[in-house]
Each structure stands twice: as C-alpha cells, then as structure tokens.
C-alpha cells in the first residue's frame, strides 16, 4: 500500500491503478461510515471469536465487538490500526501471512471489502485462512458478483499526490469461489447478497 491509502482513510480519495492505466476507486468513504445493511448480512455469519483480516478503520471489528463477539482486527496500515482503535475495536498491525494471535483457534475469519484479493492469489490466502481457523470454523468472504471469475493483476494505490509501489491483487467472483475454495481444502456452505454486494461462507469439509 502507500501513503495515498492512508490519506484516503483519513478523508481523502484514492484508487487502485492497474498496469494498463485503469483506475478502480476505493470506497474509503463507506469504510469510514458506520456499518450498512449489507455489512449486517456479512456480520450475522460471525457468531464466535472472529479475526477481521484487512480491518481498515475498524467499522466491522468495532460492530462485532459491540455485539459481544470477541474480535481482533489486523491490518498492514498503521493508520488503519490507529483509526480502528479509536473506533473502539481491538486491532493490531499484522500481515496475515505472518504470525497472527490465536492461530488455529478462530471461529471465523472475515475477508470483507474485497480483501480476498490480498496477496494476489485467493487460493493461497484461503489456505492460510484455513490454518487460522479452529475446528468447525468458517471463512466469511465478500466476493464479486457472478460472471467476474478470477482476475489477478499488479496494482498500486494512487491518489492526488502520488502513487505507491506495485503489488499483487486479485478479484474473485461468486462464480469462481467454489473452485478456489475447493483448491484450498474448503467448501461453500452459504452465499447471500445485498444489492450489488455478494458474500460467501466457507468451511472445512
């Protein structure tokens, strides 16, 4: 990520820039607002200790905590972690592929807001998530609408002032989640949608 991402979290605008020059606006305003109806559908699947991967400014981690669900948010951005803590969430600066508290004991791992794209390889990420989960646990994932398949790109975060370094990112459609989950040793248990947002819950067989 980059300083532009952090500035977006603090109230600016930012986007993902692809090598082709295409720009995809990041919905930082929604991340800063209280949870909306679609978020509620996602959070309703989290009934026990939850790890919110890529928690951003903490709207979901804080909402789960307010419901009495033990929740830890992790994010690679120090600004995101600071904002999440200010919001009342419990959050740490961590890379999901590095050591994470509670490995192998989480009831749910939450991948909202396109965070299935972290690392540019959804199967690798889901395999990591499977190791974070305890017995009977589930991954609760936000995906793209059907028809989007699996798309991998090199991207960077841009903004009015500058752009950061390039990194791998991915987008996974509802039509491709079953295949990616199976490759990671998981299976699709539930799917749902609210307006243009699609969600899936994955469990171990």
From TrEMBL:
It comes from Prauserella endophytica. Pfam families: Methyltransf_25 (PF13649). GO terms for biological process: methylation. Residues 51-137 form the Methyltransferase domain. This is Class I SAM-dependent methyltransferase. GO terms for molecular function: methyltransferase activity. Keywords: Methyltransferase, Transferase. It comes from the Bacteria.
């Amino acid at each position: 990520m980059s300083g532009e991402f952090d500035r977006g979290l603090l109230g600016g605008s930012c986007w993902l820039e692809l090598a082709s020059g295409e720009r995809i606006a990041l919905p930082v305003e929604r991340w800063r607002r209280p949870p909306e109806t679609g978020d509620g559908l996602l959070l309703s699947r989290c009934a026990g200790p939850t790890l919110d991967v890529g928690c951003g400014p903490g709207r979901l981690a804080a909402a789960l905590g307010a419901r009495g669900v033990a929740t830890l948010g992790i994010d690679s951005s120090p600004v995101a972690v600071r904002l999440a803590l200010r919001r009342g969430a419990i959050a740490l600066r961590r890379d999901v592929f590095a050591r994470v508290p509670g490995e192998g004991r989480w009831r749910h791992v939450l991948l909202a807001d396109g965070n299935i794209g972290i690392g540019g390889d959804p199967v690798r990420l889901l395999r990591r998530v499977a190791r974070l989960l305890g017995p009977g646990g589930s991954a609760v994932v936000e995906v793209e609408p059907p028809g989007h398949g699996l798309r991998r790109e090199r991207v960077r975060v841009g903004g009015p002032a500058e752009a950061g370094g390039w990194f791998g990112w991915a987008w996974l459609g509802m039509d491709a989640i079953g295949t990616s989950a199976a490759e990671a040793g998981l299976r699709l248990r539930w799917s749902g949608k609210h307006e243009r947002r699609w969600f899936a819950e994955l469990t171990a067989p």
